[in-house]
Amino acid sequence: MNINSLVPRYPVPALNVPLVSGGRFVLGASPGERFDLLVFYRGLHCPICAKYLMELERLAAEFASRGVQVTAISSDTEERGQQMAEKVQAKGVKFAYGLSLRNARQWGLYISTSRGKTSIGIEEPDLFSEPAVFIVRPDGTLYYGAVQTMPFARPQFQDLLGAIDFAISKDYPARGEYTGEV
Fold it and tell me: What is the DSSP code (8-state) at residue 98?
């Protein structure tokens, strides 16, 4: 099995997913002034995701003030995506749904199988992607990425805000770009 990994400073895969608010999110079509923050989450069944996304919504205006567009994305159905957006009381975060598992793999996301109902009594989909956070430059290249196999111990949004402030003030380049022999 070969899971593609993304490389900083290189183009990310295409992303074109429907939004619960209507329309579509097409990465690069109308990028954030400085960055797009893409938060891939497991789905409505995940209570850790809900808590994580509530924190993202709480800080959405902070990201926006830095020229960062924020989108939360899952492979959930429209109905489940809408329910998560309502649970989070989304106003500043765009919620996208219907991410194909093939597209999830292109982004290097891990895929899990259902274990039935979760602790909050919601059935897991047969297959779904695990969490990841990416920061993409307006030119479509990867600036930052964190891909996880589990829902636990995710990058903290307050830390990402500090990192974005540093990156902007110091014109700090994306790191991890070397692909040569070692």
Answer: -
pTM of the model: 0.96
What is the CATH topology of the domain spanning 16-170? Answer: Glutaredoxin (3.40.30)
The tens-digit pLDDT sequence of the chain (182 residues) is 445 689 999 999 999 999 999 999 999 999 999 999 999 999 999 999 999 999 999 999 999 999 999 999 999 999 999 999 999 999 999 999 999 999 999 999 999 999 998 888 899 999 999 999 999 999 999 999 999 999 999 999 999 999 999 999 999 999 999 999 99
| Cα–Cα distance measured from residue 68 to residue 145, given in angstroms and rounded to the nearest whole number | 15
Best CA proximity match to 60, nearest among 86, 42, 39, 79: 39
Q: Exposure pattern of 70-105 as b/e (b: 16+ CB <10 Å)?
A: bbbbbbbeeebbbbbbeebebeebbbbbbbeeebbb
Ranges of beta strands (E only) in the chain are 16-18, 24-26, 35-40, 68-73, 94-96, 111-113, 127-129, 132-136, 142-147
Closest CA to 85 of 100, 95, 75, 70: 95
**Distance (Å, whole) CA 8 – CA 104:** 18
136 and 38 in contact (C-beta within 8 Å)? yes
Spans of all domains in the chain: 16-170
* DSSP-derived secondary structure letter, 19: B
